[in-house]
Write a structure and sequence with these properties.
Strands 14-13-12-11-7-10-9-8-15-16 form a ten-stranded mixed sheet. A six-stranded parallel sheet has the order 3-2-1-4-5-6, sandwiched between helices. It has two domains: 185 residues, Rossmann fold, CATH 3.40.50.720; 208 residues, Dihydrodipicolinate Reductase, domain 2. The protein has 447 residues and is an alpha/beta fold. Helices cover 32% and strands 20% of the residues. 42% of the residues are buried. Helix 5 runs parallel beside helix 6, helix 7 crosses helix 10 and helix 10 packs across helix 13.
Length: 447
């Protein structure tokens, strides 16, 4: 199994990107749902955005039976050339994703563009009759969410958001354990994603041939503010708000999707965040350190932090704190440490007069009689470890293609994706406003 760092080091690629609120054609509201197809049918897939994530996703997607890549779109010619090197010279390639959507042989598209193109490409694809696997974060700005949800409903297309943890057997086990009461009543979730490398901080390699001849800069900019050619913005787009949602959209959204899947929560009602540019002062305008706290109506708090320089190994993880124990997710392992609650509350009488001490203890023991062999609660530890080499990305694509064939609901639809991304972007909003911000997870609106 390739970890993120080794994959990034061995891959020399990244990018694509526009947004704009579009109005759906009224006739699309009448679009019938496509008929289910045989599990043996081939699903013809097209990739839109062949950067690091897009190429990685495609590798996992093609591991599933009956999936064929037929076309690739990207704004950098070098990636289109590499697509043919990876998947065959018969792959159709183009800078314009609309050419892919016009193809009759494309059943589904994998959208891995920069964030500011997510909504436009996804909506255009569904209107063109394609099913969509849309990389996280689902949105770049809040209006994107309702537009994507409405398009999925009105066109009867399958749309799955690409936060793989929702399909992970590790997170499914954590969900089962929490629901079983393994740690009692949940009161706190702490999650982190720490990185300590330049590549982890999005300083992706810029190819030597990067220019306005090899890169479609006008198309990449799309709805973003128009500026002169900038190779760093093209290949390292996550570092700027014009194209990305920064730490929150890249990393927090994974932590939200994991938390929501495990707990069944729809989202927080209140958020407060802080952060800053602490180390990577290289011209970027998104923070490299972000800390945030969220309140959930289910009665627990979520604490998140990201640090791009932590002096240690790159890592991510969750700690679920309950009334009777802890549950930790680290990599592909879930560990529960359970300490049952005390059977009696205990007492503090030493500061009372001796007569009152005696009287109080007698009353206490009437209420809580001494039990034989009574000692401290026994701590129980149980651990679940996924099989060696397990990768949840494969399962997420397997679930997506199963829905494409059966027309049954996906495991991570547009509503789930909006609630995860919308919650994550509350962090950015709180920092920008220097204030606590409120969100309605039912209506998915800022209060």
């Amino acid at each position: 199994m390739l970890n993120r760092r080794s994959f990034l080091r061995s891959t020399a690629t990244t990018a694509l990107t526009a947004a704009a609120t579009t109005h759906l054609h009224p006739l699309l509201a009448q679009s019938p749902a496509p008929s289910p197809r045989s599990a043996n049918d081939t699903v013809n897939l097209a990739l839109i955005g062949a950067g690091i994530q897009g190429q990685s996703d495609t590798r996992y997607a093609l591991q599933g039976p009956g999936v064929k890549l037929v076309a690739v779109a990207d704004c950098y010619d070098g990636r289109l050339t590499h697509a043919k090197e990876l998947w065959g010279s018969d792959i159709a390639t183009t800078r314009d994703y609309r050419e892919i959507l016009a193809r009759k042989d494309v059943d589904a598209v994998l959208v891995a563009t920069p964030d500011h193109w997510h909504k436009q490409v996804a909506v255009d694809a569904m209107k063109a009759g394609k099913d969509v696997y849309l990389e996280k974060p689902m949105i770049h700005v809040y209006p994107d969410g309702p537009a994507i949800i409405d398009a999925a409903r009105s066109t009867n297309r399958i749309l799955q958001v690409g936060s793989q943890r929702v399909s992970s057997i590790v997170y499914a086990k954590a969900k089962e354990l929490l629901a079983s009461g393994a740690i009692g009543k949940l009161n706190m979730v702490s999650a982190r994603w720490d990185r300590n490398s330049s590549i982890g901080a999005w300083n992706y390699t810029v190819p030597l041939d990067a220019s306005t001849e090899t890169c479609d800069w006008p198309r990449f900019q799309g709805s973003a503010p128009k500026i002169p050619w900038n190779a760093e913005r093209f290949f390292q787009w996550r570092k700027w708000k014009d194209y990305s949602s920064g730490v929150a959209g890249d990393l927090f959204v994974h932590l939200f999707s994991g938390t929501h899947f495990i707990t069944g929560a729809k989202g927080p009602t209140r958020a407060m965040a802080t952060g800053g540019l602490r180390f990577w002062n290289d011209g970027r305008d998104v923070y490299d350190v972000l800390l945030a706290q969220f309140d959930y109506p289910e009665g627990f708090n979520l604490s998140l932090h990201v640090n791009f320089v932590d002096g240690g190994e790159e890592s991510e993880g969750f700690l679920f704190t309950g009334s009777e124990g802890l549950m930790e997710i680290a990599g592909n392992t879930v560990t529960v440490t359970r300490t049952p609650l005390e059977t009696e509350p205990g007492y503090t009488v030493s500061t009372f007069a001796e007569a009152m001490q005696k009287q109080t203890l007698e009353a206490y023991r009437k209420k809580y009689p001494v039990k034989h062999n009574d000692g401290p609660p026994v701590q129980e530890v149980q651990k679940f470890v996924a099989p060696a080499g397990y990768v949840d990305s494969y399962d997420h694509f397997k679930n997506f293609f199963a829905s494409v064939r059966s027309r049954q609901p996906v495991v991570e639809d547009a509503t789930f994706g909006f609630r995860a991304a919308g919650a994550a972007l509350l962090s950015n909003l709180s920092v920008e406003k220097d204030a606590i911000v409120h969100w309605n997870p039912e209506t998915m609106k800022i209060v």
